Protein 1
Amino acid sequence: MSNFTYKVYGDVFSGNCYKVKLLLHQLQKPYEWIPVDILQQESRTAAFLQRNPNGKIPVLEFASQEYLFESNAIMYFLSEGTDFLPNTRLQRSQVLQWLFFEQYSHEPYIASSRYLIRYLKGAEKYKTVLEEKSKPGYAALDVMEQHLSRNQFFVGNKYTIADIGLYAYTHVAEEGGFDLSRYSAIKSWFAKIESQPHYIAMG
Amino acid sequence: MSNFTYKVYGDVFSGNCYKVKLLLHQLQKPYEWIPVDILQQESRTAAFLQRNPNGKIPVLEFASQEYLFESNAIMYFLSEGTDFLPNTRLQRSQVLQWLFFEQYSHEPYIASSRYLIRYLKGAEKYKTVLEEKSKPGYAALDVMEQHLSRNQFFVGNKYTIADIGLYAYTHVAEEGGFDLSRYSAIKSWFAKIESQPHYIAMG
């Protein structure tokens, strides 16, 4: 019998997993972290596929042995009713808008490039793929920069899970070969996030 | 002054836009549809980028001239407080889990293949890309088939926006070269959706 409310299956250097870890820390919720090594195919075992049939991390396990997957859905679950999710319907929807933007227009380029370089050590092997990911990756950063040049945070000028969702892979984008030097609004937003109560660094 | 509560900027043959149209019909909400031709770059004009800085359709416009983008976030907005979104936190999070699955693990393969073939007429030109999209596309269909072989719908055995989100591109997956003949649970789920009140076909 576990003393923890939640178990998290994840990898501490995965941005998607870090979203869940950072939010749990900021909510001051106890949890048990179960390391999963995706390079060893540990997210593809029969036991793991019972938790997430899509074979991806992170997965949140409840004391009831139910499971929730998809990092942004897990953040929604953990934040509902807290200061990390706005209390108006339009602002909640705007939080989700930015989280869907993150998964569709940002993660496949920025996180994915970092994965090829950092995890697979494939800067040379995947040179062409990395070049293809560069333009859409910078386009996503441009959208963020434009928004942050006029707003303190992504939604309602308050720190929410939309910021956590976009921070996770953006703050390590340079590990994927993206140069952040001209993104001054993004960099000042990093500083605002890193000064939030109970912030912890990736790892 | 518009008589409509909402304007929708979209393309009636885009699955992402169809999600919004189908839900608005099923909610019996009046709306004005503003056609956007992405092949003519109409989602990249300066005026359009004011509505969605990411230059994608659909976009929902409110009478207040505020905007919401990302199809699944728009569906969340429209369905909150209705029968199309569950009333427990875990089930709402499970709906989002499947919608994030749709955008990350399904749409980039299944919708994208259809786009290359149907919109760009590129079955030959994009042969290699289409081949690369085949395996992850079928993997997404397998995850759906497995879930639907044990459940009537995606969440709580009730029809929700998770079903609309996944139906939109799955029911036209054959236009992207995916063979659905062995997916019997998916096909019987299609029939259940198509018999819902106020269902309308794509187009």
Protein 2
Amino acid sequence: MEQTYFSSNFRLGILGGGQLGKMMLYTTRKWDIQTYVMDDAETAPAFEGSTVFFVGDIMNYDAVMEMGEQVDVLTIEIENVNVQALQDLEDKGIAVSPSASVLNLIRNKSRQKEFYRSQNIPTSPFETYDSPKKDHGREFPFIWKSAEGGYDGKGVKVIRNQDDLKELPEQPCLYEDMIDFDLELAVIVARNASGEMKTYPVVEMEFHPEANQVEYVLCPARISDDISNKAREVALKVSEAFNHVGLLAVEMFLTKDGEILVNEVAPRPHNSGHYSIEGSMTDQFEQHIRCVCNLPLGDTESVISSVMVNLVGEENHTGDVIYDGIEEILSMPGVTPHIYGKKQTRPFRKMGHVTIVNKDINEARKIAEEVKKKIRVIAAE
Amino acid sequence: MEQTYFSSNFRLGILGGGQLGKMMLYTTRKWDIQTYVMDDAETAPAFEGSTVFFVGDIMNYDAVMEMGEQVDVLTIEIENVNVQALQDLEDKGIAVSPSASVLNLIRNKSRQKEFYRSQNIPTSPFETYDSPKKDHGREFPFIWKSAEGGYDGKGVKVIRNQDDLKELPEQPCLYEDMIDFDLELAVIVARNASGEMKTYPVVEMEFHPEANQVEYVLCPARISDDISNKAREVALKVSEAFNHVGLLAVEMFLTKDGEILVNEVAPRPHNSGHYSIEGSMTDQFEQHIRCVCNLPLGDTESVISSVMVNLVGEENHTGDVIYDGIEEILSMPGVTPHIYGKKQTRPFRKMGHVTIVNKDINEARKIAEEVKKKIRVIAAE
């Protein structure tokens, strides 16, 4: 009698023990899948709940190889890992998802954009450079992006005039047109090694104006069925083009002309899918594990409408974290806070999120605003 | 700035590390609540996910005191714990829920039934004895129950004639009338220390004819609103009568005359509430933690109809467990297996459960039967 994934001999590995790794462990605990996690300290959110926790640097070749050789399936919760090690583990027969080649494509924003162009995937007009170019002929304002190392709004700037260019670091980058968009949307695509594919409903992202981080995610997005279908089709095309295994979160602009343009992708569970824990038939973390273990995909449809609010550290607060007002929001129906377990807060650090479910998406959005007013992530005095 | 439950100084303790303890940890991980768990071996389902795991016998006074003195709030996942230790911990100011007095009442089925009689809570006619009585004057068949130690159908027998009495152990017991019931129902009541109370919808339990274990749980029960309201009222009355803090699962008979009779109760999350992880606005494990930590209660209503199927060990199978067919049921929409992580199976041992959600309860019930046919908990050869 053979048993693969639900056997006590099977080992899953996750590189990165932040909140995404932690939320993957909800499923590995539910299914009793033995899971090895690596991050740089035992204070990482995914320490508890892991079967074996490796203290190590996921950018370090030897560290990744050491853990990777002990697992059957290896995945990531963040793109900044040692890709050479992933390549070598693949060559040794470990099932690595996302693959080294996909990570190489995605981690470099210039390569990612060139890839969209080559695959006829709609994206905003852009040009790539080895270093910031003064003589660019592009209309102001436009967007500068560092080719590598950007995360959560770092490595991205609006360039308003020629002077702004002087402050940029001398490194590979791209300039792209600033898009006059109506909405920012995202679609999560699930794909397993057998090629089974499903998309989650289109979500709408509202960004915090200063932090350039997602503030609210609404599922479903308040758009027409036509736009929704178009967005899901584009997302499927992107996942197929990458021949990607796992979740792929595809962030998009909906332009004022009703056009869908792919902005960027993440090859893993994503902030835009956190609502799915409470809102979906199958949550994104379970779905990611289904994908990387080549299990049948779960139903991606929603059971109820939902809004997700990120809990980020307040400005001017650094130190031991306090979730001021959390007991108050627990008394609001349909409101579920998630606390990642980071001991220290700092301005705009992602410390948790709150999901608000309601039969009516507009009502959920209203409650989300109430939640936002009542809870504050601050530092103890 | 004060913070109680969501503070890094707060400790929750759980006596018992089986599947119920394990599923409570889903919430403590979600909320980053540091949780101490005690059970007799590190192979217990709740080992992973606990902050600190104590290897110890929860029936042992010293063991319970040792862990109990290190936590702020102490709860249980099973009634068979050292109650004297709980009493002494309460006296030292630890918030213990359920209380020692409630456990003393509930753990003894004779005392439990006498309590219902004294509180005018409807229950089947019965008599209690210090040992099985030959001269009882009760019509056959009737039910014999051992006053203490019964669990999952042990300590319960149908007495069909005077000869059956000879096989009974010489210990305190009760005889009760066999009820000609239509359905077995259950209502979970949540109550926190502030006295806030909520009931979950009425569920319907279908029992396995041989194992005397719940085979299917349907939420909502297929009954009229009148019966449903009556059952919820009776359940509230029971929780109030006990002055109980935590979840109280109230099992009931719906007689052929439409009467509700309380059968027995469990002062903790219960098999009849497992569906709530997928089916409810707030799952029963989160709700129990809200109760014992005196947090506001969550919404108990369902987001979708659901049926829960227990995964128990097949007859004639003892040894290393295999979940035959699990990958097949994963491809069925709305089907979520939960694997408790017990390494060894034996006949009728609870090894996991499967939740089936669907907009239509009758459709969910049909799919549940398919699931039951496809998955088998067997031993490796």
